[in-house]
Amino acid sequence: MHRVMIHPASYDSCRQSVDKAFELFPQDIAGKKVVIKPNVLRMSAAEEHIVTHPSLLRAVVEKVEHLSPAEIVVGDNPGLFSYGDNENSFKKTGLMTAAKGYYRNLGNTSQKRAFHPDFMPEVGVSKEILDADILISLPKFKTHGLTIMTGAIKNSYGILPGAQKARLHQIAGTPARFHELIVEVFRLRVPDLFIMDAVVGMEGNGPASPDLREIGLILAADNGVAMDGVVARMMGLDPAQLRFLQKAKALGLGEFDSQTVQTEGQLTILKDFKLPPLGGEAIFDNPTVQELMTSKSQIRPQADPALCTACGACIDHCPVSALSMMDAVPVADADLCIRCFCCQEICLEKAITLR
Ligand code: SF4
Ligand code: SF4
């Protein structure tokens, strides 16, 4: 039976939730190398809630410091194309200060690991992650246009440094394959403990949406599949319909059924929670919807001329050069676009939605 903690919290009081998490899921930290990995999607202000909040990171760092002498490392590989801005992403979000001097650039060293041949025969994984005795993942409660939700499993996509994340996006090609891909990355090094920032979550057009949701919770678990199952329920979804959870369960990485997951705390379904613009259909085992989803003519990113500043960042970062500027607004070529949603992630103006 898995357990998932659901604990009331504010950013001022999240240390209490962290204490509770370590009480429920004790870690033998003395003398170990402990790597703490927040979700650092890209450079942004903490108040945008695109990344794990610095208050939670600080609380976890101080808890580990308090428990026992340990070698602490804090790091992540920010989103697809911000890997060159690793340090600045931590600084701008406030996570650098919260890391209390333990920050390391996880993009600096990597080691090859055999990978699923359907995607790539091998991938580079941040060496600090592979060297960790204890890996603590700090996901953020958010929606995601491609995976519907981003939580414990998706946070591990950041163990891959450099441009290979973009390459893998391209190779995956369809939402269904991307769901499978993130599980393959997750199992390269399954974290030992997950503590999720759900104090302020994100709904709507995630993972960088302006639609924030006051939830007032910190979640914790020692199994990412169980945690994501609980998050899915809170979002009003049936976890059994999420392809990445189906895959994770089939691989023996954990369970998400309510009979096999005990919640420590109140699981409340968030009323009228807004899923990504696709309405979440990508997840459902419905042949008609799947057909629609894989038809390139049906979905593509669209820039809002009222928000777009024509900076060109999305065009520079599209892995398949599907975007070009027309009348000072980027337009996607439907035949080329692989719906990786990197353009949506990279746009600082939040000008891109999926239509
Ligand atoms: S990154 Fe955003 S603001 Fe810049 S060109 Fe693209 S859509 Fe416009
Ligand atoms: S246009 Fe956007 S969603 Fe399409 S392939 Fe390029 S970056 Fe990905």
Structure description:
This protein is an alpha/beta fold and 355 residues long. The chain folds into two domains: 2-264, Rossmann fold (3-Layer(aba) Sandwich), CATH 3.40.50; 295-354, Alpha-Beta Plaits. It contains 13 helices and 15 strands. Strands 3-2-6-9-10-1-11 form a seven-stranded mixed beta sheet. Strands 4-5 form a two-stranded antiparallel sheet. Strand 7 (142-144) and strand 8 form a beta hairpin. The longest helix is centred in the N-terminal third of the chain and has 14 residues, at 54-67. The chain starts with a strand and ends with a strand. Bound molecules: iron/sulfur cluster (2 copies). One iron/sulfur cluster (SF4) binds next to helix 13.
Write a compact overview of the structure shown.
By secondary structure, this protein is α/β, with parallel strands linked by helices.
Query: Could you give the distance between the termini?
Result: 41 Å
Note poorly predicted spans. none
Per DSSP, the total helix count is 13
Give the C-alpha Rg: 19 Å
Within the largest sheet, what's the order of strands? 3-2-6-9-10-1-11
Ions, cofactors and other ligands present here are:
iron/sulfur cluster
| CATH top level label of the largest domain | Alpha Beta
Number of strands: 15
Q: Tell me which CATH architecture of the largest domain applies here.
A: 3-Layer(aba) Sandwich
Write the SSE topology.
Elements: E1 2-8, H1 14-24, E2 33-38, H2 54-67, E3 71-74, H3 86-93, H4 95-98, E4 110-114, E5 122-126, H5 127-131, E6 134-138, E7 142-144, E8 148-150, H6 152-155, H7 164-172, H8 175-186, E9 193-202, E10 212-221, H9 224-234, H10 243-250, E11 261-264, H11 287-294, E12 301-303, H12 313-317, E13 323-326, E14 329-332, H13 342-346, E15 352-354
Parallel strand pairs: 1-11, 2-3, 2-6, 6-9
Antiparallel strand pairs: 1-10, 4-5, 7-8, 9-10, 12-15, 13-14
One iron/sulfur cluster (SF4) binds at residues 303, 308-314, 330, 346-347, 349, 351-352.
